[in-house]
């Protein structure tokens, strides 16, 4: 691989993630012809095909899948080295990358991260809000050091720790027919139209599954990008919304919403903190992990 540089590794990883060499080239600002040539040289150096060319894109070959894992490791180490060098120049002594689902971030993590940052000004934190599936993939692929999600998703082969939890509640306008109720089973409102988040989010997935168990599809009228947008849309009568109680609490008065308890076991949720392995964590990441688990 002596003729290939880190830029080529970035191109290969991007092509695997985007399933397109042309889109990967566009992301990295490389001409398509130059990108194709880089991959050809890479495959020549490793003496085998790494990408399978399809009519509408590319996918890694079995050898490419193995190479992808090592390419990500190499890029991760280079990225960490760059950060550590820049940290020493700027006086910062650590850098930790964290990804979290919206539920965990709003219920607890934002408060904990703020306290940690105040007591550790020499450690720089990069916090990204992502859905559950994306968060777990970012931990597995070493894009972040620590991930926090709602339990129930497949966390293998990651190491997990309990991180508290929350409960889901139903939000309806004060004028809605269900606003007179204080507690409801899911079967009592499953035929309503819903405002939800996207497909990869924990709340959406549990609602779809519970509706399936009742023998009917979930009727989604509007898909929002944030919990606050969900609350606003629900207040306008576009559908009922199932939200984490800590999220709804500060919004319900402003938006004129009624909070109704959902009497179902799945409405009480546990949060999970995930890492690849303890030995892989740098000292700053280990310090944040210990703080989060015993704040």
TrEMBL record:
Residues 4-61 form the HTH lysR-type domain. It comes from the Bacteria. GO terms for cellular component: cytosol. Keywords: DNA-binding, Transcription, Transcription regulation. One of its GO terms (molecular function) is DNA binding. PROSITE patterns: HTH_LYSR. InterPro entries: HTH-type_LysR_regulators (IPR050950), LysR_HTH_N (IPR000847), LysR_subst-bd (IPR005119), WH-like_DNA-bd_sf (IPR036388), WH_DNA-bd_sf (IPR036390). Gene3D superfamilies: 3.40.190.290, Winged helix-like DNA-binding domain superfamily/Winged helix DNA-binding domain. The keyword DNA-binding applies. Belongs to the LysR transcriptional regulatory family. This is DNA-binding transcriptional LysR family regulator. It comes from Enterovirga rhinocerotis.
């Amino acid at each position: 691989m002596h003729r290939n540089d880190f830029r080529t590794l970035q191109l290969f990883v991007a092509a695997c993630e985007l399933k397109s060499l042309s889109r990967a080239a566009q992301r990295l600002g490389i001409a398509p012809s130059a990108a194709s040539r880089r991959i050809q040289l890479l495959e020549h150096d490793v003496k085998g095909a790494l990408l399978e060319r399809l009519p509408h894109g590319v996918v890694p070959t079995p050898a490419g899948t193995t190479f992808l894992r090592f390419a990500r490791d190499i890029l991760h180490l280079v990225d960490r080295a760059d950060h550590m060098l820049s940290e020493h120049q700027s006086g910062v002594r650590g850098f930790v990358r964290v990804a979290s689902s919206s539920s965990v971030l709003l219920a607890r993590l934002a408060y904990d991260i703020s306290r940690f940052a105040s007591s550790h000004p020499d450690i720089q934190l990069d916090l990204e809000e992502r859905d559950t599936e994306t968060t777990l993939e970012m931990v597995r692929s070493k894009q972040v050091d620590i991930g926090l999600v709602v339990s129930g998703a497949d966390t293998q082969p990651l190491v997990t720790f309990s991180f508290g939890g929350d409960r889901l509640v139903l939000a309806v306008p004060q004028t809605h027919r269900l606003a007179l109720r204080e507690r409801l089973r899911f079967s009592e409102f499953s035929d309503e139209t819903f405002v939800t988040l996207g497909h990869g989010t924990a709340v959406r997935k549990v609602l779809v599954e519970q509706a399936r168990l009742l023998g009917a599809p979930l009727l989604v009228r509007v898909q929002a990008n944030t919990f606050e947008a969900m609350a606003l849309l629900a207040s306008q009568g576009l559908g009922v919304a199932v939200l984490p109680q800590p999220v709804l609490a500060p919004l319900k008065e402003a938006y004129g919403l009624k909070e109704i308890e959902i009497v179902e076991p799945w409405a009480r949720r546990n949060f999970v903190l995930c890492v690849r392995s303890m030995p892989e964590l740098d000292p700053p990441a280990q310090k944040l992990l210990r703080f989060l688990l015993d704040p």
